[in-house]
Amino acid sequence: MKNKPGKYPDRKGHFGQYGGRFVPETLMPALIELETAYNNYKKDRAFLNELKALQKDFIGRPTPLYFARNLTESLGGARIYLKREDLCHTGAHKINNAIAQSLLARRMGKTRIIAETGAGQHGVATATGAALTGLECEIYMGSEDIRRQSLNVFRMRLLGAKVTEVDVGSKTLKDAINEALRDWTTNVRNTHYVLGTVFGPHPYPLMVRDYQSVIGREARQQILKTEHKLPDCLIACVGGGSNSIGLFHAFLKDNIRMIGVEAGGHGIKSGRHAARFAGGSLGIFQGCKSYLLQDKDGNVLGTHSVSAGLDYASVGPEHCYLRDLKKIEYTYATDTEALKAFEVLSKTEGIIPALESAHAIAEGIKTAPSMPKSSIIIINLSGRGDKDVQEVARIKGTNL
Amino acid sequence: MSRIRDTFNILRGNGKKALIPYIMAGDPSLDATKQYVMDLEAAGADIIELGVPFSDPLADGPTIQRAAERALTNGTTLKKVLGLVREIRQVSDIPLILMTYYNPVFKMGIGPFIKKAVSAGVDGVIIPDLIPDEAEDFIKPARAHGLDTIYLLAPTSTPERISRVVKASTGFIYYVSITGITGSALTIEKPMKDTLNSIKGITAKPVAVGFGISRPEEASAISKLADGVIVGSAIVKLIAQGKSIKNYVKSLRKAIR
Q: What is the pTM of this model?
């Protein structure tokens, strides 16, 4: 189970002591089938060309790397660049993975795809992938998230997906994943589960990372072209961890500072947060071994974040491994800090960020002033904030 | 020889099949669970599965999910379930199996869990989200302490999976009758008969079938194909309704030959 750095995950999906496959036996043949298909199509010219063409003409890649001049000047420190995943079709990085997995599902001969969603972005992205590839689609979403993200629910339905409300447990993302796994266990023969993040049983953490690492590959080329040097620091928010791994992965060998920002909710002491590294411990949950917010008896704790997309009790296994290797450091931003950053970016740059991405902006606001003016930060602006406008208005007590 | 294997051997000698009911420990209370165990034994159960409640039971349907929620609300924990087993052992020798998700066990620690379980009187464990591939660290100490490790097979299982699971299982092999979660509707599909035959082709270990069995006729049909019949959700549903389980379990016992 020991991996050499750069030689992970192992054959069974272990990132050091993390990851693996902790699922009911019924799903094992499907996971092995998926792993085989993923490995085969990784080298398949026709598949890669189809994906590349869609990345360009459908998703809108490459996304710009934008120099945030106003924010940089107002903070008076490092030069801040934003990787504009918010400009992807459907409004967030989630589409990179959803389109790739939809193509894969169709090539595997599946007729139906399912997915979980928290903020609704992955649900919208998967519903979009299903519409594009002509697959039947069902999205599981917690009833608490449905309330917070009603706009995205309507978007998914417009795209032809069935949205199923999950009204058990905490009624958020983790319960939607349980329900999606139950659906997959039942309909595994014709259904592919489009997991939305670098989590769950092998090969998902590896596969989703590969489909998202286009973010970092582009950003690395773009910054070298514009600034003729590598950045000093990368910042991204971490829910399950797909946009952050997506940005960081192409820079892992460059030995630059990388910061993952978790959801601090009402603060760590309040117990109402989703900061797994700050408040969690090693556990086994929804298919893999990772850091987990749990009680002393091993039951999974409720989480809280103003952003539905970060409101999750565990985190991708590769993040745990890279943290142990000291390649990535992790911190958190509270709800209040994220909401403030949401407004700051809107006013200084004319860009309304997703509340998830606002956590990364909040860390940028903290970090940039103490860095030299010649230094460079890239922040992954993983999604746009249109979906959050209603919720922010509600929090501010504004009647729309 | 374990209590579980002894039970199957005796049943086999008499040309009988095992009735294995499942109930959720702590639903509606641990005291009630103790009484239900006595009732099940009196009604003809051969082996009893005790569910350990977990916050995220991803292999379970709505009936057992709700039972787990009730048990957790009552403060039931893995530690308390082990205490219950110790109490039951004062009055009964019926083989007891814990069905628990992996995280509560992992949190307690594999070594401490196995020692405590065996000393309390647990005979075997079923951990639906711990497949043999990830269970090396669990199987070794379990063997050393004589705790049976029961693994699952499903209609989707390939020959490679079957041989791996058969090798890792002691006590019996748990065949999941449907491609789905607990409490789903049962259909006796052809893959089930094929898989049961291929399991029996490579091992003499007993095979019990569960998931989705509720009517006595279904139990009867399954008992002709396997060494044991596992019934869970149907009993848990009666308990949730506050009804007696004795007559129902007796009707299952009569149906299983």
A: 0.96
